[in-house]
Amino acid sequence: MDEITWEGRLVRWNDTQGVGYIESKQLDEDVFVRISTLKHMNRGPRLDDVIYFRTHRNRKGQLCAKDANIYGVSIDVNNVAKLPRRKTPLKQIVRNLFILLIMIGLLYLYGDPIWQYLLEKNQQIINYSKS
Q1: What's the CA dihedral at 40, 70, 8, 16 to 10 degrees?
Q2: Residue 51 and residue 72: Cα distance in Å, rounded?
Q3: What is the per-residue pLDDT across 75-104, written as a single tens digit (0 to 9) for each?
Q4: DSSP code for 37
């Protein structure tokens, strides 16, 4: 949703499910947070923790926390390295390859006439500026 870092307070937390809600005076709605968003912290979240976070909307349109940190709690450097890296979706890779192939094909078919046209225009500009 945005790249703004918000501040809020953990108002609900379910340890069994590892989910909860952050209330922020800056936002109109509570923000959903998962334990995976806070796994890099040296301790788990507790009620009334002050949390700094960014937001995005999930598929259901729910406002969710991302890149969250608990104020006053250090980051577990060993745990950060274990966090999974986000992979580029296959659909996006296929789309990008398709676009690349189309561009290569167009350059192959029309590349030479385009370059000739650009060289002629460039020469016209040079000749015009000399006169």
Answers
A1: 60
A2: 9
A3: 887 765 554 556 678 888 889 999 999 988
A4: G
